[in-house]
Amino acid sequence: MSATIKITAATATDQPEWDSFVRSYPNVSPYHFFGWGEAITQAYGHDKIYLLARQDDEVVGVLPMVHLKFSFLLNELIALPFCDVGGCLAVNSDVEGRLLAEAEKWGEQLNIKNIQLRGSLYNKFETTDATFTPIENDKVRMLLTLPHSSEALLTSFKSKLRSQVKKSEKNGVVFRWAGEDGVDSFYSVFCNNMRDLGSPVHSKKIFQAIMNNFGENARIGLTEFEGQCIGAGLILSTDKQTSIPWASTLRQYNRLAPNMLLYWNCLKYATDNNKEIFDFGRSTKNKGTFRFKEQWGAQPAPLPWYSTLNNTQQGNGKKMAKVSVREKMTDIWSKIPLPFANFFGPQLRKYINL
């Protein structure tokens, strides 16, 4: 007779067990670590509901969720917000089913309008009457399988790419690594870039909290020119994977190719520290960022997301209307003064789950 699976809401005391299970899981993302939810709670005040499945006192599954709620306008559980992947991890489909059922119970208690899962599932919910249905998604995750050394990686690049990296150094751009002390420099570049892209910027607090919670698994790379930071990226790592959720450069210095030096050093770090995969993050096929990542050798991988709002409920007309509104808002936001964007951006961004 199989032992009973017990589901509980994890607390801070469960973090060592939680992270130990996450580390043991194949191809896991750094966003699954307990510290991701901790950082979001500390920076934005959102409640996290981290479900932990045990069998015979052994952890057999986790489902990290964050509750985004704002008045009567927003009430959803996201696994996980502000990243590409972060859904359910379980040793088998039975454990996964139990975790998802528990998530639904939490949804009922909190009167949740939507539960969203970002990641692969054992059970593929493809029917319109299923609780979770696939979200129509034109995004892919760009992944690069790393060789045994950074020298081998550099050799694998086309000569044009290698010359672009060298061009940056010849232009006088220098690279250095930083920890928590690099947040201010990173954020000064990030704020400018997000405004120019027409997107509300995250609060500096979330980056400070991420660096604090991830410890040695988080680093900030900085590219500098004549003593000024002109490019920056934040990387997070597991034992086998490095991800770069945020990277930015100042547009007026793009002629110096600081982004090439930034990404090369992030890739070099991952390879030399025995990582197997470098995750460039989410992109739309054949768009600019897709092609940028593809030139490094990254290949597209599916990015399955599921929701309790099925595609019929979402409706093509509604989705097209949302896209139109988003495009207009992006254009408006890119033109507002930077101080205004930096003040009001974090107050909006904390409720945008992407």
Automatic annotation (TrEMBL):
The BioF2-like acetyltransferase domain, residue ranges: 156-293
Domain of life: Bacteria
Keyword Cell wall biogenesis/degradation belongs to the record: yes
Keywords of the record: Acyltransferase, Cell shape, Cell wall biogenesis/degradation, Peptidoglycan synthesis, Transferase
Keyword Phosphoprotein: no
Family listed: Belongs to the FemABX family.
NCBIfam families tied to this protein: pepcterm_femAB
PANTHER family (alphabetical): LIPID II:GLYCINE GLYCYLTRANSFERASE
Name of the protein in question: FemAB-related protein, PEP-CTERM system-associated
Species for this entry: Candidatus Electrothrix communis
